[in-house]
Request: fold
Amino acid sequence: MTAYVRSLNAATPGHNPAAPSRATGIAKVPVEAARVRAPGPKHGGLGSGLVGDFVGDSRHHGGDHQAVYAYAREELDAWQDRLGRDLADGAFGENLTTSGLDVDGALIGERWRVGEEVVLEVCGPRIPCQTFQARMGVRGWVRRFTEVGNTGAYLSVLSPGTLRRGDTLEVVERPTHGIGVRLAFRAFSGDLAAAEQVLGARVLVAVEHDELARRVGRRLAAVGELED
Reply:
């Protein structure tokens, strides 16, 4: 089966029930085409990698290493079954709703060619936040999403160009280190064994590597205090 972009999604500023004083771009809707480029740093850059897409929380979202967010339609279908309700393409705030690609099975550093021009690189997992919980309106949503552990993937833009709905999606380079998106998410979610693997492989971009190391340090310090 050929993998492809089932839906290309972007957002304009919208009301954020989790933080009413700050707009959000999580409510994305399908568009036929969009230009993608590296947006620059998270702080002071252009936000999303998709021209015309809005990022409301530039502290935690957007920037070169979270330029594009991909989520598999197959996983949305699984969540439809779990929740007993329909989920449209873009429901999780993803820019790319893919079909025929195991997004959560991707390795950190894996490269995808999308259409004729664009090359994207997998940088890491999506970390669920309170804005996501408010959008879903599901009690304990962050915990449930974390337990399943299929987060989709954040990507950087290596080769810019125009993306279109229906573009083919091909994995053109896959690293040999074996560190995948699911393992990285477990590491960020408090699994110390997973974190040791991820940090030891040094596959994350520097800012994410340092953040994970800080989280591990805090967790180990807390464990040490409990044992004293």
User: Anything to note?
Assistant: The chain is about 30% helix and 20% strand. The helical segments are 73-83, 130-136, 141-148, 181-188, 192-201, 206-227. Residues 4-227 form a domain with the M1 Pyruvate Kinase; Domain 3 fold (CATH 2.40.33.20). The radius of gyration is 17 Å.
